[in-house]
Design brief:
Length: about 130
């Protein structure tokens, strides 16, 4: 059985972290549709499960100490987002085994190639090295 929601989680996480790294140390707004794709709310104005999952990825990254933000506009956007020191260190880490390539460069290649498997592998390694302050 394929767990598509986990693949989407890793892809969303990669896009969010790459965006924050690209703008670091500036605070930026992240629009959920820019990460998850267009959303069509239902007749009651409720967003799709895909949209909500992407929004929750932002919340999860924040809870795990990889990013922070000041506020959000419902589930449409998250404002004043920036990587935490831990997030910055993990993405800037250069792996000597991988030929001196930084993790953010590995992530960018995976995103460019559209490889969910490569994206997941890079992020699994990042998460294994992350030690949240709890």
């Amino acid at each position: 059985m394929l767990d598509i929601h986990i693949t989407e989680f890793y892809n969303d996480m990669a896009r969010i972290l790459a965006t924050l790294y690209r703008h670091f140390p500036r605070q930026v707004s992240i629009y959920i549709e820019d990460i998850s794709g267009p959303d069509t709310p239902d007749e009651y104005g409720l967003h799709s499960d895909r949209h909500i999952a992407c929004f929750n990825t932002v919340l999860w990254l924040t809870e795990e100490g990889l990013m922070r933000f000041s506020d959000h506009e419902r589930t449409l956007a998250v404002n004043h987002c920036v990587l935490t020191l831990d997030g910055f260190r993990l993405l800037s880490h250069i792996d000597p085994v991988e030929g001196g390539v930084s993790r953010i460069d590995e992530l960018r290649v995976a995103l460019q190639e559209g490889s969910s498997d490569m994206t997941e592998a890079v992020l699994r390694q990042l998460l294994m090295e992350h030690r949240p302050n709890r």
